[in-house]
């Protein structure tokens, strides 16, 4: 007799499981943003993304339950305190909503490329379409409010040209070429994403009461500062504008809106996104000095991420993702 239903593959199960876990985090964060946002346009955008996140979360729950895959506990109402004082300005909230959409866009594309089962592909196609819409609306609102920073402009080439010298790859000595447009873009936007992470981790230092976690966050702040400085120096050396003066808003509140489990989990997720971003930057940078920057800074994030994961394991907060059976 033919099987009525195709089982989930390992990658489909893994992506759905992780999507459920991190989706619950987004819902918790957006629920707090919904409570504290004051600008009507920002609040409307938060509401739209929150409603979409809840719908996607429910879709994954239906798929996993149908295949009898245990749902992760993930993050719940216990991990967010919506009555906490306002910790973030509306400007920061809007940037973070854009940041969430950008992360969902990249993740959904990866998941879609590995999925085969119709309900899974349909889910991630919908996630991808919604992420494109959310990123666009958030960016347009940032532009409307004069908050969006465009990447630097470069002259339009007036003729076709082939690379003539091996010095095209140089980065330290000899005939060093100027930056390519792609290299500028990755340096510029990694400064922006590091700036968002810097403000976020600063707010966590301000509100956490666990000294071990606070020390870990302070180390992360130092790493973000350093990476912003490294990328900024490359742009400055080329006399290109740097978004380092961009100021994200964290208020003076010391009330924690999120549990330490959620704070540490979010930094772990941002570490993963940072490693992915640096990997893409490395793959598309042809000047040796820039490639080395991305390589060594990614290694630093890897070590920092591992230390954070160890803290989560010690605290009993690290859930076991689906894994292959032990054949030994």
| Helical content band | 55-70%
Mean pLDDT over the full residue set: 90
CATH topology of the largest domain: Ferritin
Q: Whole-Å distance between the termini? A: 32 Å
Please give the domain count: 2
User: Oligomer, anyone?
Assistant: single chain
Q: Could you spell the SSE succession in H and E letters?
A: HHHHHHHH
Secondary structure elements and pairings:
Layout lengths: L9 H27 L3 H27 L23 H25 L3 H27 L36 H27 L3 H27 L22 H25 L3 H28 L13
How would you describe this structure to a colleague?
This protein has helices at about 10-35, 40-65, 90-115, 120-145, 180-205, 210-235, 260-285, 290-315. The chain has about 325 residues and is an all-alpha fold.
Short description:
With 328 residues, the protein is mainly α.
Provide the descriptors you would attach to this structure in a database record.
328 residues; mainly alpha; Ferritin; 2 domains
